[in-house]
Structure formats: C-alpha cells, structure tokens
UniProtKB/TrEMBL annotation:
Record domain Polysaccharide chain length determinant N-terminal: where: 3-88
UniProt keyword terms in alphabetical order: Cell membrane, Coiled coil, Membrane, Transmembrane, Transmembrane helix
Gene: epsF
Coiled coil feature spans: 179-229, 256-304
Transmembrane portions of the chain: 396-418
Species in which this protein is naturally found: Roseateles violae
Annotated protein name in UniProt: Chain length determinant protein EpsF
Length: 475
C-alpha cells in the first residue's frame, strides 16, 4: 500500500475514523471525571550505613543493593502490615469488622484482610544511588493516605528494631549460659594448676631450673678437672712402681735429699778409710753400718712418698666417683623438674585457653546484652507524610493526551480494517494493481468544472499511464 492509497483510504473512511476517535476521547473524559480521586502521600526514611559502637563488629560498614532490597521487602512484609493494623487498632472498629464480614463472609482473620488491603495501595521504592527509601500510600482521602504512610513507616521502624533486638536477646541468653560454662571450666583449670603447684612445691619453675642447670654445669666442670687430676695421680702411681727414686716428689723431698747428701759423704769416707785401715777395722765396720742405715732410711722415705701418691690417687678416684654420682643425680633432678615443668605448662596452657575463651564469651555477652537493650535502630524518618493538596489520579491531561494518541491509532486501524473487509477502487493505481494492465484513459467526474481542454500536465500524466514516452508524443 502506497502513501497515496493510504491517504485515499483515510479520506474515504474519515467519518468512521473520526467517530472512533471522538468516542475514545469522550469515553476517556467521562471515565476520568467519573473515577474517584486518589491521593498519594509519601514518607521517606534514611538508612544509616555507619554502624553504631555496639554493633561495629556484626554489621557491615556500607549499604549495598541487596541491603536496600531487603529493607524494601521488610516494609512490604506481612509483619509490618499486621503491626500497622494493631497500632491503629483497626481490628477493633465495628464498621471495619462489618466490612470484613461482608467481603469475606467471616473467613480468615480481619488482620490478614486489612493487611492485604493495605498492601495493595502501598508502594515502596528506594532512591537511586542513595540510602533513602520512599514509602507512598494511595487512598481517596488525603489524610487517610498520609496516616497510613506514616503508620507503615512507624511499623517499619519498630519492626527493624525488633529484628535487631530479638536476635540480640537470644544471643545474650546463649552467651550467658556459655559464659557460665566457661567460668566453671576456668575455675577448674585454675584449681588443677594450684593443686599441682602445691603438690610439687613449685613457685617459680623457670628460676629453679636455671639454678639447677648452673649447678649441673658447675658439677660437670668439677668432674672434668677432678678426672684430669685423678688421671695424673694414677700416672704418677704407675711410674712410682718402676723407678720411685727418679720421681719428682722424691727428688724434691728435702729429707730424702739430706739423707742422700749424708750417704754420699759417708760413702766417700768409707772408701777413704777402707783404703787406709782395711775392711776389718772397727771404724770401717761402723761406717759401713752407718751407710747401710742411711740407705734404709732413704728407701723408707721413698716408699712413704710412693705410698702417698697411691693414697692421693685413691682419694682422687673416690672423689671422681662421688662427683660423677652427684652429677648424675643432678641430671636426673633436672630431668624430673623439666617433666614437672612440662606438666605444669600443659595445665598453664589449659588455664590460658580457658581464660581466653571466657574473655571472648564475656565480651560477646556484654555486647549482645547492650544490643538487646537498644532503643534506636539505624533507620530514621527523613520526612513524614503530609496530606497531599492535589490528587494523583485520575490525571485528566495525561489521560487525554494518551487518549488522543491511542484514539488516532485506533481510528487509523478502524479505517484500514474497514477497507480490508470492503475493498474499493479509489485511484488509477488501484486499477493497475487489480487488472495488471495499462490504463487507456481516465474519465473525470461529472461534477468536474472542465470536461475538455486538459492541461499539459494532465496530458503528460495520461501519456505516462498509457505507456507512451515523451519522445513518441512529440513525434
């Protein structure tokens, strides 16, 4: 369908199109005037995304779309609607109860019926890129609309506070019982550690172990020194058995040295007298006896020195054995103290863990206890609803604009539909499309002013419709 055909259809069907257009406008106007006026009251609340000091640990530090959507769902929930009904005491109104019986035949509860009725006219929308939520209510009475909007806001504030306080109360009771158990565990751990320290006589286990370790090191040093001394005395004793007269102790002994000097003088005199007087002379015999006595005394003194080395070696070996036994006893004592310290450390760790658990539970208990007593939430009323001065529906101007647009489309649609069901030939182009043959001539209407003398433009159009070119026409 070409645009010229479309215009010819509208020109032919203009009465029907105009009738449909005017009828739609009239219907829209009547409905807009007949419909009762609806007033919309809007109240707004703002969410404080900064957590209060009591809930700084439990609540996030920023709002997000999920949080805003959750708050919207809370406002439109049945719990808030039921609270509105209870706060306004509408379920006690006799007129409203009669309306409920007529509408539901007494089935269900009046609170549920009122809540569903209120929710139908409630609209909750969060503002874009902000923490403000707008609560609007639509009703025929502006004061009633404002009252319901404010009632929903108040019920939402109370519900939001309950949703925070009720879990805090439950957690507070839970942490209270857990704190008692943790306190009992802490007291038992403290009692076990005290009894263990009293039984083992522990005051400062680390200091005692340090002292005993120092004593063990001292005994070890003494043992090493004494073992060296015992080894030296044992070596001297072994050397004394073969050549005692060449030992340092013998050589440095003053008595033995004096006796050896006397022996040397007596042996020299004996040799001198023996060469002069002979072996049988009484002086020689006496002098020989003196030399023998000196040698005996030297042997006796040398034996005494050798025996003293043996006694010293025996004493040193005995001291080594005693010191080694003391060292072993000290080592066992330290090992026992370390075992006691390890056992005490286990009890001390149990006490520390019990203390930490109790402190943590006590902290959470104090926190939840304070939260359960909170009277403020993180939601505040930004602006309460006031009775609107102008109605929001029906909007006559907007409805008429929409009716003009829709009526125009509907009028055109009716004209096209009528043309489809009752097809007419309205132009030469319709004939060409219908018979698929060129047009020989076009007869004007009888009412035309000029039946003869076509203009050059009309002749040219007729020639083009008949299939002649301009060149052929001039020829």
């Amino acid at each position: 369908m070409s645009f010229s055909q479309f215009l010819s259809i509208l020109q032919a069907r203009w009465k029907a199109s105009l009738a449909v257009f005017l009828a739609l406008l009239a219907i829209t106007l009547v409905i807009s005037l007949v419909l009762p006026k609806q007033y919309t009251a809007v109240a707004s609340v703002v969410l404080d995304v900064k957590p209060d000091p009591l809930s700084a640990v439990l609540y996030p530090t920023g709002a997000n779309p999920a949080m805003m959507a959750t708050q919207v769902d809370v406002i439109t929930s049945d719990r808030v609607a039921y609270k509105v009904v209870r706060n306004l005491k509408l379920n006690e109104n006799a007129t409203i109860r009669e309306q409920w019986r007529d509408a539901t035949d007494g089935q269900g509860s009046i609170e549920q019926w009122l809540a569903e009725t209120f929710q139908k006219n409630l609209d909750v929308k969060p503002s874009r890129e902000s923490n403000v939520i707008n609560v609007s209510y639509r009703a025929p009475d502006p004061r009633f609309a404002a009252g319901l909007a404010n009632a929903f806001v108040q019920a939402y504030l109370e519900t939001n506070l309950e949703l925070r306080v009720e879990p805090a109360k439950q957690y507070s009771g839970f942490f209270d019982s857990r704190a008692k158990d943790a306190r009992d565990t802490l007291e038992k751990a403290q009692s076990r550690l005290s009894e263990f320290q009293k039984e083992k006589g522990i005051i400062a286990s680390d200091e005692r172990i340090d002292v005993e370790n120092a004593r063990l090191n001292e005994l070890s040093s003494q043992l090493v020194a004494l073992q060296a001394l015992a080894s030296d005395s044992s070596s001297r004793q072994s050397a004394a058995r073969g050549s005692a007269d060449r030992m340092q102790e013998v050589l440095s002994n003053s008595l033995i040295a004096s006796l050896k000097a006397d022996l040397s003088r007596q042996e020299a005199r004996l040799q001198e007298l023996n060469s002069k007087l002979g072996d049988a002379h009484p002086q020689v015999v006496e002098l020989r006896a003196n030399v023998a006595e000196l040698r005996r005394r030297i042997d006796v003194e040398t034996a005494k020195v050798s025996n003293s080395l043996g006694v010293a070696n025996t004493i040193n070996q005995q001291r080594v054995s005693e010191l080694r036994a003391s060292l072993e006893a000290q080592r066992n004592k330290i090992l026992q103290m370390k075992a006691v310290r390890d056992e005490g450390s286990v009890l001390l760790r149990d006490l520390d863990n019990a203390q930490k658990a109790y402190d943590m539970i006590a902290q959470r208990y104090n926190q939840t206890s304070l939260e359960s007593q909170a009277t403020q939430s993180n939601v505040s009323v930004l602006s309460p609803a006031v009775p609107p001065r102008e109605h929001t529906s029906p909007r006559l101007l907007l409805n008429m604009i929409v009716a003009v647009f829709v009526g125009g489309l509907l009028a055109v649609g009716v004209a096209v539909a009528l043309e489809i069901f009752d097809r007419r030939v309205r132009s030469a182009e319709d004939v060409v499309n219908a018979v698929a043959l060129p047009i020989i001539g076009v007869m004007q209407k009888p009412t035309a002013k000029r039946l003869f003398g076509r203009t050059a433009k009309a002749n040219l159009m007729q020639r083009r419709l008949l299939g002649f070119s301009d060149k052929g026409a001039s020829a």
